[in-house]
Amino acid sequence: MPEVSVAAVAEAERLRGAYRWMLLARRLEEKISSLYHSGKIVGGVYLGRGQEAFSAALGVSLWRGRDIFAPLIRDMAGRLAFGEPLLDPARTYLGSVLGPMRGRDGNIHRGRPAEGMPAMISHLGSMVSVVCGMLMARRFKGDLEAVGAACVGDGATSTGAFHEAVNLAAVERLPLVIAVANNQFAYSTPTERQFACRDLTDRAAGYGIEGHAVDGTDLAECLMVFEHAVARARAGHGPQLVVGTLLRLTGHGAHDDAAYVPEALKRTPLGRDCLERAGQHLITRGLATPEELDRWDREVTEEVRQAVATAQQDPVPEAAGETWRALCSDLQP
Amino acid sequence: MPEVSVAAVAEAERLRGAYRWMLLARRLEEKISSLYHSGKIVGGVYLGRGQEAFSAALGVSLWRGRDIFAPLIRDMAGRLAFGEPLLDPARTYLGSVLGPMRGRDGNIHRGRPAEGMPAMISHLGSMVSVVCGMLMARRFKGDLEAVGAACVGDGATSTGAFHEAVNLAAVERLPLVIAVANNQFAYSTPTERQFACRDLTDRAAGYGIEGHAVDGTDLAECLMVFEHAVARARAGHGPQLVVGTLLRLTGHGAHDDAAYVPEALKRTPLGRDCLERAGQHLITRGLATPEELDRWDREVTEEVRQAVATAQQDPVPEAAGETWRALCSDLQP
Amino acid sequence: MALTYLEAIREAQHRALSTDPSVFIYGQDVAVFGGAFKATKNLSREYPGRVLDAPISEDAILGVAIGAALEGMRPIVEMQFADFSSLAFNQIVNQAATHFWRTGVPCPLVVRLPSGGTPGSGPFHSQMMESIYAHYPGLVVLTPATVGDAYSMLLEAIALDDPVIFCEHKFLYYHLKEEALPQESLPVGKARIARMGRHASVVTYSAMVHEALRAAADLALEGYEIEIIDLRSVKPIDSDTVLASVARTGRLLCVGESFPWGGVCAEVVARVVADGFNLLDAPPQRLNARDTPIPYHPNLWAAHRPTASAIAESLRRLLRF
Amino acid sequence: MALTYLEAIREAQHRALSTDPSVFIYGQDVAVFGGAFKATKNLSREYPGRVLDAPISEDAILGVAIGAALEGMRPIVEMQFADFSSLAFNQIVNQAATHFWRTGVPCPLVVRLPSGGTPGSGPFHSQMMESIYAHYPGLVVLTPATVGDAYSMLLEAIALDDPVIFCEHKFLYYHLKEEALPQESLPVGKARIARMGRHASVVTYSAMVHEALRAAADLALEGYEIEIIDLRSVKPIDSDTVLASVARTGRLLCVGESFPWGGVCAEVVARVVADGFNLLDAPPQRLNARDTPIPYHPNLWAAHRPTASAIAESLRRLLRF
Ligand SMILES: Cc1ncc(C[n+]2csc(CCOP(=O)(O)OP(=O)(O)O)c2C)c(N)n1
Ligand SMILES: Cc1ncc(C[n+]2csc(CCOP(=O)(O)OP(=O)(O)O)c2C)c(N)n1
Ligand SMILES: [Mg+2]
Ligand SMILES: [Mg+2]
Closest approach of chain C CAs to the CA of B331, in angstroms? Predict the structure, then answer.
């Protein structure tokens, strides 16, 4: 058996680990999608198919339980990698009252803000400044090590909220990683109707921050870039803008057939499936065997089955049990 | 008498013309400031001292009556150069009911939107997208020649409104000139608490538009850059970001002594008075004599005196004459 | 050939584009895609260059509409959901609403807000915002409850010289059908008697009109004739029609889907008691959604907003008084 | 050593910073400059690193406050003028207000809004926004009218676990003085009887309390005893105190400086008639600002907002009824 360096072992483990999260996210979302089409899901369904590499790479690059991760609508892989319990998505999508939002809010809006994962509001761009505030709080409290990551899409970069937050993060030199998944579309709107710059990383200089471009379909590259960006942020080099180029391999939501995505675009390198590529990569580099991948697949499929089965047994919210109070103090409105 | 080219004559005329607008603005604002301190002005006073070259150069670069000019709080010079009647500021500051806003709104908020000069609201950054809309209207109506200019300060570049508008202008490839007067402060806040980029022109690439840096204290340079930018916009090259570097040679408002501006900064080249420099330039290049400048000074001072005297005789708004209706249609609220 | 409420909205835009060259449509995904709800389906093909996709920039979208309006255009803005207009709030209330009064130059534009709750939509895709916008001077705020009104009021909104907030209700988009578009219609600013009655008046608007009608049908079985007033426009409010109804019935219940504090119902009650105090035989009542964000789970949502049975319950209490 | 309303606000922040390490102040020009109105004067020197200048980014400023609050801090945000909070509207009503209800994690922050009209300030530096924020579930909205309340309510606001919109009135900043800060005070959520009376009740808040007191003094000369209720907090509203007053006087006038459509006055009237209809001897009335933007010229401004004489006039009509 040839000698392998510690670094190589660690890298192999990271790749294998990230791949497994990608696989879990893919299988979970496939299940949610099929439940949606049979009318079993409460609320809307937005999937991350094609974006698992980019998302999982970010998730595994952060310190669970220490860092901050603000996912967006296509970050199932990153959420799971960062430590979200599998039951959280299962419960929210199936309308269980035991999910983290107790039926009050749902699906992509779920979060565990006390554990470093804010619960997004729908208004795109709005979470970036919230992560800034969390990081400022850490700094006030003397924690100079924590990194915060905020995920957005290409479309969200057009929001005023995004701009204000990134600029503010630059002024405060916050350890913020801004992960932009440029999946070529915002709902049906192609990037040429969204911005006119050559590449979204061109924005970095305008904020005075560091920018990184990455092929979002390539897990190994995503891991490398995010690990680097997180390390730079942690080391005090200020906000890091990471732009991943990829294609949304699904409709905007489960209701959308994405007929507006040109066939030709799907056949470009952008259209490659990051999960398949990552699997190939593991096999080609000898980091996993095809049998292993198959076994993982069976394992995660079973994990998904169990989580969904549990959530399906859960009680649903009942109006009678609601307090109908929005205030946390005991003031009487 | 040596032969001079047509271009040289035209350039001389532009310099002389712009200088005269600067002088008029300076004298008018000095008058308003002294009226303010004797309690004769209605509302707040924000002055453009030190910014006349940058502002006037933009004003004279536009086509009066055809183009669009959206001034901000320090653009007295540009307004006058673009064609605002001197009585408009005199009347608004003195609370005449005959001013363009009829006492309903005042001072820096005055405008003549039907004549290409929108009336600003206070919320910084909000006017840029309004100019975009005006330009889109022109395009809809088949006018492909008009240019629109929107003025902002360094501070306003941090607003979401600014970002959304510039990005949208780039997507629509609008003939928009964005004039950023970087006067080193937003009220008391220095630029290092406002943004972290090396230079605000670094933002241009991030929007995919053309950017131009200019010494805002140098009239000749401002003229050259704005004429170039306006011509580029008019020729279909899309939005042009022009950043003028200068210093606000006054408080934020007439109520502010600007004690927070370091003395050392005032002694840098940024602190040079653009009006004096422009006068020197005219004399040195033989484009005007000291006597001519003195004569202009007497002339504009007299113009100011007359405008103020007229405005002071004007009737003031009376509540009894108000319709107290905000709707323009005859719907009864 | 029955037409839905949503199709009526599309038809009105179609007609406006075809008859007035100054009309254009601006919003996210409105062009080729035809809008998130398909309210602009095919319009970009039929009117090339006049139905434009916007970036995700609600503030700038409104700024563009305002600027274009000042230059004589008549923009129709589609917000993808009413809830996202919170990001255009400043441009709407401070720029569009104040413009005519400040400058004498009108600012004719329409902001279409897909409003209101549907099951599973949650706190950020269910809001009613009419009470917020109606608070501000200079805006007209419309809340059509029928297919015919969706059509005729949208056409009127486009023709008005004032900025109009057009609150269309998503719950009615596909549910509500009518056989044909109206030839005639009440003008904006006039309320409609949706059902005549004499024991109590329900004043309401938008989707709640239909809940109220169902409640009235229930109470008819109990021998009560409930009059239902559909406000149609919440700014201006047609106080005359409301007062005339209260004069007939002596009892008032005002029903709204928005949050309970302030808003349309409070305004209607305050007007009625100021000008029609002596017409009342019982304390006027309000029924609104609960004072929490709008829940995502349908079980909670159904208990959050007023429903036919909650309205009927309120009416029974009011009638017992 | 008399203290102004503004100094009381500064003192409250001073005390909060000194007693609670989780408090910090964020806003434009609040640090070395001490704020546009000097409400944070010297605080950045006394509490280095805890009073921070923000860029002109109202949305992000609120986002920062929310994020910091979620992590256990207690941010105080100063808006330079209440009017500019329109740009933080989304973060306030959709993020801060909904957070506890959605997630169970509190979001304790205070947004200080320098509010209300002063002569010559015009449409964008004069607004009252309490009616907008109070509409949304999840917010507490305070409107102190006295030096003592400015102090004690701000301290209470900072200590509350809910997001608080603190509407301080610019017209009172320098005008209003008191000899000392209060040792005790009414809790947030309780209204105050600012003047006892028996012929009519004026329910009001913020700067209008003082106009109403002047009107009451005038009417006293005419033999009428007017009771003045200072709401102090407009969300929650202390309906009990209001109803008790109406029970004593039988007549209600509600006065507010904000726009007339909806809002605090409509809410108060709607509550009183729903729960205290039989207490009323006359139709309850409202007096608000006019339904136009706020005029810049002092002549127009004085006629736009309610004044002591306009209140007295309304009261005379109410008393004649
Ligand atoms: C401010 C705002 N405007 C509009 C929407 C409606 N909306 C939801 S997702 C979406 C497209 C987002 O595109 P992008 O940011 O590229 O993310 P992607 O869906 O491609 O992952 C839009 C317009 C929203 N959520 N927020
Ligand atoms: C959105 C918004 N926030 C705050 C203010 C208050 N304000 C008025 S002028 C000003 C400073 C503006 O600085 P800058 O843009 O650099 O322009 P300058 O005054 O230097 O010309 C501020 C903060 C405002 N008008 N708009
Ligand atoms: Mg996208
Ligand atoms: Mg500046």
Answer: 7
